[in-house]
Input
Amino acid sequence: KAGVTQTPRYLIKTRGQQVTLSCSPISGHRSVSWYQQTPGQGLQFLFEYFSETQRNKGNFPGRFSGRQFSNSRSEMNVSTLELGDSALYLCASSFSGEKLFFGSGTQLSVL
Amino acid sequence: EDKVVQSPLSLVVHEGDTVTLNCSYEVTNFRSLLWYKQEKKAPTFLFMLTSSGIEKKSGRLSSILDKKELFSILNITATQTGDSAIYLCAVFSGGSNYKLTFGKGTLLTVNP
Output
């Protein structure tokens, strides 16, 4: 069974640009969650989607958005990038939302 | 706001030592507590605990949950250099606040 796949693995952007990250969950998993990981803050919850509906959202500004498609694949978008958005963005999938399986992440650097 | 606190933040031991990692939490609508190991990028699942006082074991790793005192411990016996990683504790809360809240992790370094 293939694991959670995130693309791209690395990304370099400049301030003010926008970025879209992609996540393909494990086959059969309908829940996809997104986390931001930084050395100082650890893993911070961004949002969770289940069957194309956002079930919960963390305390991030509106520049961070996401969506889920009918095949459970998910994308997250960050608009008007800031230096502080530099982080590892992790996607995780689960069957019901509880036991998460993580992808290898997208390392975003904002210059 | 849900809170998960791990201690210590970092730990350096020698191969063969036994270590205990701690995780305390304050969440509404507790459903489960999970432990993950993060070596490079992707955290990998270790344990999920839902019932108090029942130990989960996998080889040299074991974990137990105390729902009355709101904490969990992860034990690693006879540590090996391959155990070097960040160990993450997370608590799953249900109800309207359906999410997994992570602690900041414990960085374990096992020296030969």
Notes: Chain A is about 0% helix and 55% strand. Chain A has a mean pLDDT of 94. Chain A touches chain B through 25 residues (CB under 8 Å).
